[in-house]
Amino acid sequence: MKTALRHIIHTATALAAALIITACGGSSDSPATPDDPTPTPPQTETTHGVLFFFMGSGTGLQTEMDENVRQIVQKASGIVDDNHKLMIFYDRVYDPVDKNHDTFTRLTEVKKVDGRTKQVTVEEWNPQTTSTVDPDFMASVMKLARQKMNADTYSLVMSSHGGGWIPSDVYDEFVAKEGADNEPSASRALTLTKFFGEDSGSFMEVPQLAKALTEAGKWQCLLFDACFMASVEALYDLRLTADYIIASPAEVMGGGFPYQTVLPCLYEDSEESYTTLCKAFMDKYKGSATPSATVTLVRTSALDALAAAAKPIYAAAAGRTIDASALQGYEGLRPHMFFDLAHYAGAAGATAAQQSAFSRALSDAVAYADHTPTIISGFGADKGTISMATCCGLTCHVPVAGYDKTHAAWLATSWAKAVGQ
Q: How confident is the prediction for the chain on average, in pLDDT?
């Protein structure tokens, strides 16, 4: 059974583990989706466009993304019309494992032609001379899609690998040190990575992504079908790109979101609709043979207030030693790279009033969050099943002795500066 996670697996041993333990789309772990579990979007005079941006080149997720596209086109037959526009960008290369020879970089519009719903090519690019992780190229594609759809409002789905806020060189050094400390006999063959998207071994930093999305225009909802993107540091960088962001604080199974179920939700600009989308995602994985899912709906307008409320929390934490090993982590690394934000705040030693203000701000920022009791992690010394005793929906960095470079990189983030570090 072919399996995958939507994040970068950095060591040979971790990759092997991920291939064994992780559920994928189309397997027995992905139950059949009902034919019409969500209502067709209501007919309105307002036009809305949805853009899917599949960055599949070199990710190993081609099979899963192919199934995602099939579901989208199938569901679109009851949705697309003059008021409900839909476009798909897909960067895909030959997969030597699955022997799938389709290679293309193209933008299509999903529309009705002679009574049938199909993809109609809008533009194609040479995969050898373009890079989807180039922010200028990404912005140009998104601008083209918006121009062609010519809608009043837009939503965006980003599908690829993801890894939160951490710069590539810091991440690789962190994983190498973790491996050296805990798995001395393991291979140290590391893949250089950055932290959103992949194009045949090249990657993108979150600030670059924020720049591209902002240049393209404001989005009503931004959905990340990728791992670790509900890190508060990454979300803070992205806060001006969309009104709402849907993301996972942990790893996402290769099958991703159940698009045949959730597509209609992307056409209703309401918190209720986005919450329904998140619940459908959780239902898919709660009912799987190996339940593993986390999801968060974020009100981006509340992230500045969250940073202000977090400022005294971080100030209090700076004056004490916090045992990071006692905090909830979201992956199998030892020490963890992603920690639960609320759990960290509770251990910071802030006053009751400061803690209460932070909790209120967190509730304002997180419109919805849910998780399975355990999750699956495909990498790290503790890869495998991880217990989720607590989950506020957002992760954060926590300083750990011996990882000064990681902390120095964190201090350079916009979030760290906003919370006074």
A: 85
